[in-house]
Amino acid sequence: RREPLALINLKKKNEETGEEELASRLGHCKAKATRHIFLIRHSQYNLDGRADKDRTLTPLGREQAELTGHRLASLGLKFDQIIHSSMTRATETTEIISKHLPGVKKISTDLLREGAPIEPDPPVSHWKPEAVQYYEDGARIEAAFRNFIHRADAKQEEDSYEIFVCHANVIRYIVCRALQFPPEGWLRMSLNNGSITHLVIRPNGRVALRTLGDTGFMPPDKITRT
Predict the structure, then answer these.
(1) In the chain, where are the structural domains located?
(2) Global pTM?
(3) Phi, psi of 39 (to 5 degrees)
(4) Along the chain (226 residues), what's the average pLDDT of each consecutive run of 10 residues?
(5) At what angle do helices 168-178 and 131-148 cross, to 10 degrees?
(6) Which residue of 104, 111, 197, 223 is surrounded by the most CB atoms within 10 Å?
């Protein structure tokens, strides 16, 4: 939805002055800035919680979030916003990270909640949600991808740096879609708690993956994948 030619009414163009007019209008629709997307997986949480509100971060999870927040702050970037899943573990991770990034606004969304994005290929024996989950969660997670992962708006003048705190399934699916890889392969990737995945979206729509699931900033005894 950001390809400049797709943003122009070609019928109207044909009734006007032709190629010169088209070039001028294309210039107004072209992105000029690069978007840097930092996808953060939530920290370790209480797996015994029956409801979402009970699945709070463990003491180790809170340490992990502190380390992730410190790492993001150390990059010296001017972050524009933190968008996070409305689930408890993502919200708590965000609150801890945001202490290291004072002044950066936080936005909660249901679109980034954990779920089953698409049936994995090859299938796995240890994780088999009901088929209806793929239809319900998959549509929502795809909507999250389309809503958040795109080239910069033409009005954006400077490069932006945005943080998304969410879940492993969501991040893995988004990475596959952003790189135009078969999304069914999302489960072949593994992400540590509190890890940082960095996507870059250029003005021409090209996407690069700078890092995937980085936790090199954590001591080995603090790294988990639960």
Answers:
(1) 1-29, 31-220
(2) 0.91
(3) -100, 115
(4) 68 56 72 96 95 97 98 98 98 98 98 97 89 94 97 94 98 98 96 98 96 98 95
(5) 60
(6) 197
